[in-house]
Design brief:
single chain, alpha/beta, Rossmann fold, 297 residues
Length: 297
């Protein structure tokens, strides 16, 4: 009897053990939402020091390890400013006043390279950023909040916000890497949007492929990616095929292998047409990526 009871209770004991053990999120087999870069990394502990912010009104620049390849401060800031400027122009072309967007969320904000440049009128405005990199979110909370707001999440399609909360959500170069559950993630963005709210995402499409193999082929630091793309095409013939979407892995991001996703715009628009209206398609809105503006019905 004792053996039987022990056998029946073992799953619950294991669940409790993993739930109580620090730093065990990634290897916990009982959690479905376990893709994240935890604050403690592989150390099993963390210490958050008190940070005294300078009285200057300028938002600080994150350390290099959180910039994802932008080593020079000016390049980091200029890229975020340009991509937000492109996004704001797309919104204005659709008849949207960015200053009238009270609550805005960036999915995959990293260290807020873009979010810091989104207009923040005084009053009731909220600008939120979420990311799976807990170290980046912690840095943002210590150095950029206020005026910006941040929360760490996982790759499971769930956001810690109520229904119909935001006027706009945006994701720059995020759906280019969501090979698993992209539809569920888009539905989650739709859930937190109010009726009439806007979702702006960037994707890699056929035009992106053309740019990567021509205008960007000699860019320093991209050879590894272009080589992966050509190798994938040699094995599958995907680039010349009539594809709807394809994905391949290459590189490392916060300790995880990185999927690189490409879509046919017409396929994506058709697939998501029942749940949101595609307002505009904007090539080269984010480097070689195409920006798509959707509106929730």
């Amino acid at each position: 009897m004792e053996r039987l009871v022990g056998k029946l209770l073992r799953p619950e004991i294991d669940r409790l053990r993993y739930r109580l053990a620090p730093g065990r999120v990634l290897e916990n087999p009982f959690l479905s939402a376990k893709r994240l870069s935890p604050l403690e990394g592989d150390k099993g502990y963390f210490v958050i020091p008190n940070v005294t912010r300078a009285p200057s009104g300028d938002l600080p620049v994150p350390p290099r390890r959180l910039r994802h390849g932008y080593d020079v401060d000016e390049d980091y800031l200029a890229s975020g400013r340009e991509q937000v400027s492109n996004m704001l122009a797309i919104l204005r072309a659709a008849g949207v006043n960015p200053d009238a967007l009270g609550r805005v969320l960036e999915l995959g904000c990293a260290a807020a390279r873009m979010l810091r440049f989104f207009p923040l009128p005084p009053g009731q405005s909220e600008r939120w950023g979420v990311d799976v990199n807990a170290e980046a979110i912690n840095w943002c909370q210590q150095n950029l909040s206020p005026p910006l707001l941040f929360a760490a999440t996982t790759t499971f399609p769930h956001l810690p916000f109520e229904d119909n909360y935001f006027d706009m959500v945006f994701a720059g170069s995020v759906f280019t890497h969501i090979a698993d559950l992209p539809d569920a993630w888009f539905l989650e963005l739709r859930r937190v949007l109010r009726r009439g709210g806007y979702a702006y995402i960037t994707i890699q499409d056929r035009h992106s492929i053309e740019l990567i193999l021509t205008e960007y082929k000699d860019v320093t630091g991209l050879k590894w990616f272009i080589d992966l793309l050509r190798k994938f095409d040699a094995e599958t013939g995907a680039l010349s095929a009539d594809f709807e979407c394809f994905s391949f892995e290459g590189g490392d991001w916060d300790g995880f292998p990185v999927p690189h996703l490409f879509h046919d715009v017409k396929y994506l628009a058709r697939k998501w047409a029942p749940i949101a209206d595609l307002v505009s398609v904007n090539e080269e809105a984010y480097g070689w990526q195409t920006g798509l503006l959707f509106q929730k019905r």
